[in-house]
Queue: 4 jobs
Job 1
Amino acid sequence: MSHNTFGHLFRFTTWGESHGPALGCVVDGCPAGLALTEADIQPYLDKRKPGQSRHVTQRREADAVRILSGVFEDERTGGQVTTGAPISMMIENTDQRSKDYSDIRDKWRPGHADFTYDEKYGVRDYRGGGRSSARETAARVAAGAVARAVLGPDVTIRAALVQIGERRIERARWDWDEVQRNDFFCPDAQTAKAWAEDMDAVRKAGSSVGALVECVVSGVPAGWGAPVYGKLDADLASAMMSINAAKSVEIGAGLEAAAMRGEDAADEMYLKDGAPAFRSNHNGGVLGGISTGQDVVVRVAIKPTSSIRIERETLTNALEPTTVLTKGRHDPCVGIRAVPVAEAMAALVLADHKLRAAGARL
């Protein structure tokens, strides 16, 4: 299986399956001398791990990370730092229930990658989707923590859930501090309460629902990216679309730009404290594929979880008509736990572009 690696100068490869003994990643291209311990990585994994509320899958995983290579206890600084060598990390799977999938081993689940995996490889791991499972994103989040170390404290990456189903947050009530206070990474307490009621109904019906995640990155200087095939926004879109169940990505105004007039969409410039500034940010912090110094704004739409307890028509791998419903433990809204994954993917792209930008000018 190819294409398990993402990035250019700063790149990572993930490995492992949902119901295998472990999963993990190898991060290559990380500069030497950065402080990095397992304790620096674990908080991001804790944010993503399952079983933290009734609104997500009840699979219980500690998601404890182990760094296997690429760091060294530096006596001069008294702390553990990166060596410049590949950083290998592992996360053990401890709560698999593979028997839950025995009924669907020969069936193609609608909305899943079962059919396409069989067509491409002639074999598939039916236990939780194997490599196509969202469980793989734990490794991305670990790699994203390393990327944050490369970016440093001047770059702030924050994501929030701004829509579940048809209920979207009113922008006037947005509060970043509220994101860490509820089960939905929601920046509005009132909407979070409404979502809880919505999700209880969805879960009781055995169904699922989609969501919209918004990621905002502050502190990116002007000049990261490239004007043709290495565009910062193109790489961000590619990264976000690689997240399980992602179906669309917006940068800045996104789809709303199609309804704008030129005088409204263009972000006017002026001089502020002797430096260029913008009066709006419809372009999401990127112009011509290169960062402007404004906040980089990305949204990713996540489709409803395909594993539902409602019987659907399908085929077996012998092309026999049948029906299927999915047993086991699944997220009724996989978009909730996509929030820390979106942050990680943004960090990984930006770390790569930071290193690329370093060699652009003498």
Job 2
Amino acid sequence: MKQRTLGRQGLVVSAMGLGCMGMSEFYGPGDDAESVRVIHRAIELGVTFLDTADMYGPFKNEELVGRAIADRRDRVILATKFGNVRTADGGWLGQSGKPDYVRSACDASLMRLGVDVIDLYYQHRVDKNTPIEDTVGAMAELVKAGKVRYLGLSEAAPATIRRAHAVHPISALQTEYSLWQRDCEPEILPTVRELGIGFVPYSPLGRGFLTGAYRKPTDFVHGDFRLHGPRFQGDNFTANLAIVESVEAMAATKGVSAAQLALAWVMAKGDDVVPIPGTKRMKWLEVNAGAAAVVLGPEDVAALDAAVPRGITKGDRYPDMSTVNR
């Protein structure tokens, strides 16, 4: 697995990461023992950039990742997030970027992860009631204290990114990006590139839809949060299948899977782009990791751009879009 650099502060990560969220919540029941095996296999394959957050589980995912890396901490780059506030029983309390909360959330994450330092610490969602300068100021204090190495933002708007970066260098912005979610291309990607900030696409497989594994809503297991997503419902689901079919047809000409082609497209968008496809299954981990060896030329990227143009996907990506790109 090749390495890529995020930002200008020295953060070097594997060219593809592993999103760990689904191991603990949102995508149906999990198996902790299998998830640990998946994480260990990812590290063996060179996928050493691990992504979690305090809210996943809630709290359980950080504990799971912490157990998995306890004897191999020096082999991974560990990213986690704060800002989406939840109760232990899964309740939602909104967003917080208040300085006191930033400090307490970091200490709690360090304890759950069982580590002395977090490599990349993101604000998960922007708190519209707290100036970003105050939030990033508190995050900068964590860097000075040696608790955090690099700072990141998630789902932040261009103006917010600029204000944050003026307080302390931001190394990475995490935002959804895939063949069916390209809204970041006109403004967000140019902004982070101007500022020298790395880009970390989450859901680079369209929440698994671009793999071709889902042909009807009933293919999702009970409790899968995608069942509540506008893109996975009714006529939107049917219309979006055409996107999958386009990707599958082009993948067949390359002798690769639809998932591998979709991931290769994201990775071909620049050396400053590091996707973090998530999975809790060994089969999909190995498929995804194989995408790193798929080389797409400019003509391949252009053909995919044309086959799945920006804005073609039907439906919002969340039932409630109010916290996206603030």
Job 3
Amino acid sequence: MTPPDDLDALVNELNAGAPRPRPVARDSRAAAGDDVQTARLRGWLVEVIERSGSDLLLVAGAPPSIRVNGIVTPLDDAPLGSEEIEDAIAPALPPHARKQYRDVGIADGSFRTPDIGRFRINLHHERGRSAAAIRRLPSTVPRFASLNLPPNIEALTRLSRGLVLVGGPTGSGKTTTLAALVNEINHRDARHIITIEDPIEYEHPHRRCLIEQVEIGIDAPDFPTALRAALRQAPDVIVVGEMRDPETMQIAVAAGETGHLVFSSLHTTDASTTVGRIADSFPLERQNTIRQELAMALAAVMTQTLIPKSGGGMIPAAELLMVGYGARTHIRKNALQHLHQEITITRKQGSFTLEESLTELVKRDLIDRKEALARAGHPEEFERLLG
């Protein structure tokens, strides 16, 4: 295994146009070892593509596994050791991510091979051993109509200002939805869009819009720095891949309140938990102030989840709250339990509940009734709607 420091030096030399030194035979053996490990990673990724998988999962003590349509299946390989995983994955990370892995034991980065595609890598530790999760990234940005989301959600692209939050559990398609919404704006309007991501997952071409994509660790050191800079770059639309810390949340809320259209995502399950997550991220003495600002800035809250589709594959069910006077009042008073009722009150503005979305999917025979009931936050409402 070539040490990460040597890899960083090699990258710097190649960027500077300097020849690679080969002073001793040990370097050649290390390079050959890297080639073997790269070939091993490529072999696994080819399996992901051939099986139409979404993720490659590597855990010490278990064989490599692939997720296909939500089901994790082991490959016909021997169980992996911790060093095998690190040797195979670390060289694929960009230099800043390798340094982060050395420093804190966890890192994210993107990896591209011209003949296979792009992948998002998370290299981390579990039980003191190396592990990795590698997500396949699509080569093209989806159009909104291809996602099978309720059509009301497309209206989010026509908002002129405000903060739009997209919630959902890990792997529920939040990033894909955000990319599709940006793509709709890109095809329709002449605007300046800045995305801030870690790492960049969908690469947007310039169509009617001018799009800048900022990658954390490469183009900016962190989300707050990138977001503050974006506000000085005359954007019409800002996409924050994920709001992970109070400082990013504060800046995003302020941007939505002062005339920008801001999209971002959170790991939440419904409108009330999405709004609550923002305020709860701040110290107690600041939470009331944040609620007041959030009530003014928030334009919409959407949440989604993926459900096994009848006949195979996955399909999203969603919920949408278009924020009006009633919702703003509940947010200010921290009466978030009333936001679900607010969805039903604002149907004419485009809002709909998760239960309504699930009911529609069941009636169209796209998902099983039991699967839908298991995901309904208000089962009695779902049963009533389905009759």
Job 4
Amino acid sequence: MFWLSVCAALHAQAASAVVDREFGSFDNAVSLSVSANGDLMVLDAGRNQLLQLSQAGDVVKTIGGRGWGDLEFDSPTDVSANIGLNVYIADYNNRRVQRFDRKMNFVQSFTADNIVPALSGSFYPRAVALSAQGELFIVESDGRRILKFDPAQHMEREFGGFNAGDGALTNPKDISVAADGKVIVLDEKRVVEFDTYANFLLSFPIDSLSSCSSICCTATGMLVAGPEKIIAYSFGGEKKFELSGRSLVGLQNIEEFRDAGVFGPSLYLLTQHSIIVVKVISQ
């Protein structure tokens, strides 16, 4: 419903994207994930911290700090918490993925040493995503591949590598999983879609962004974030709408966009230092 109402509003003769509120004081926010109950999980790489915020913008809990410990990070790159039971962090320089429960208690780490079956090659996790069935997908940047884990946390397969034909990835940056199980990968300046069994489906270019930073699935499509704007696409690659900083009514300071997410009637836009909550209305 959110997706349809936003599309209709932005394609109306008179529509505006109105800033409802803005909050946060991050150092260098790089990733946003909206949990099933509406909590906002923000990864602040500048402070090596994960922050849990309420819908009102209040900080509920913070974990992290630079280090090697179970509750510490070193240049983390992505957070996934949309399914609600677990939170996963791509802890890049520590070469691991950390898993926490919904109360942000440490559960386990995935490293090259404890992945079963044993992983070939190096392990530099850049992004993470969960399916509705509890499958974990990891973008492993050094091998330019996707690793898929079953709900029991055993590696099931890898795909997207150099021998994947049309599905071969060149510089995978982010990943998201649609409700029907499609795996959506942001690969440099194109989107590559696979089915849940790692079969290549289609790809399409993103020509209207100088660079791309993140991708997020919604109920019927996806949001791609770049420094200057957020673009919405259908799963088939049809552009639905775009929002730039200059198109947001009530925005005081325009910063580069880093990520985006939705919950209920609200669109959440992550910048380096804050979260902007947007309402899109027809007039």
